[in-house]
Structure formats: structure tokens, C-alpha cells
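Standup notes, protein team

Yesterday: finished cleaning the Celeribacter persicus set.
Today: PaiB family negative transcriptional regulator structure.
Blockers: none.

Input for PaiB family negative transcriptional regulator:
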Amino acid sequence: MYRPNNSAIDDPATLRHVVAEIGFAALVTPHEVGIEITHVPVVVHEEGGQTVIETHLARANPHWKLAGARSVLIFQGPQAYVSPSFYPSKQEHGKVVPTWAYIVVHAHGTFEAFNDAEGLGAHLDALTDRHEVSRAEPWSVSDAPVPYIAALKRGIVGLRFTVERLEGKWKVNQHKSLEDRQGTYAGLMTSGEQGVDLAQALASFPED
């Protein structure tokens, strides 16, 4: 990923947190006849100091048969249009153009497939609990009939992705002048939920 120094984020704890918060990725695996791409929900674990990302695919999806191949999980975070009108410098010299603000994380590594009932059960419980925990009445996999869940498990394959390298890019105008950063912040705060997330990310960068 092209990452100018002013937008590169490499802190492992920050990147793991963002990956877990986004919770959805594109799994990209090149192979001899092309590139396989599958969009998947994920759950993140730490195992002995190693970041492991689990997901699952439909058994009919051939992507799982590429187990062992070098792959990338692409996590697309918030993104929003940035208008030149956000910048006070527009009034000074007019030398401004639109851009796009976004946050993205790439996880590089390899994955292995698993289909044992116990492993799939633990994965589905973890994935479900991660997203149900904040609900007033959380749904649990155990709420569904056991034969029904057992039949569904036979139709999926689990993937365990071992992360070798995480790299992030925060493109939120943190390199701009203080005045234009403040203008970007104000503009993004009016650009919907994703814009607010990006404005908060911009505010986390220290002022020069």
C-alpha cells in the first residue's frame, strides 16, 4: 500500500483495535489463474503474542481451498469526501482541490481452513457474541435448535488467518496547516457518521 510518511500508521495495538472495530474485510488471495476475493465478517484473537483473525466461508466458495497461500485482509474504515470549501486557505489563494479522507488497514499473512464442529462452534459463538453483547437482549447461537445449527455448520468452512504484518493508513489531512486542519475537522463533523469518525481521528494527531 502506498503510504506517505504523514499518513502511515504502524502501531500494532492501534491497528488491532481498528481491525476489531471494523469487523469486516475483503480477503484477497492471488493464485495461478487470477485473484480470489471474498468479503467476510471477522473476529480477532491474540494467541501467544500473535494476532489471529478468524472468519468463515460457504463451503461452496472455492476460496478456502487456497489455504496456505499468501493473502491480504483489507479493512476499509470510515471514508468521506473533503470539499475545498472546508479550508480557510481557499479564501486566501484558491489553490485547493477536493480530496478524500479515509482509514484503511491491511493484514498480510496466510490462512488455514478448519471444519471441526468444536472449532466452528467456538468461532461462531465468538463472532456472534462480539456483535450481540451491547444489545438489551443479546441473541446467542444456543438460542437456535441444535440440529438446525449443526446443519448450517456443514455448509461452511472456517478460516484462521495468521497475521504476519499489519499496516495502516490514516488520510485525514493531518499534514495540513493548523487552520486548514481546523476547517477539515469542522467540515467532516457535518459529513455524517463516518465524517465524525474521521474528524475525531484527525483530532487525535498532535498539532505541530
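Follow-up from PR in the comments: The mean pLDDT is 94.
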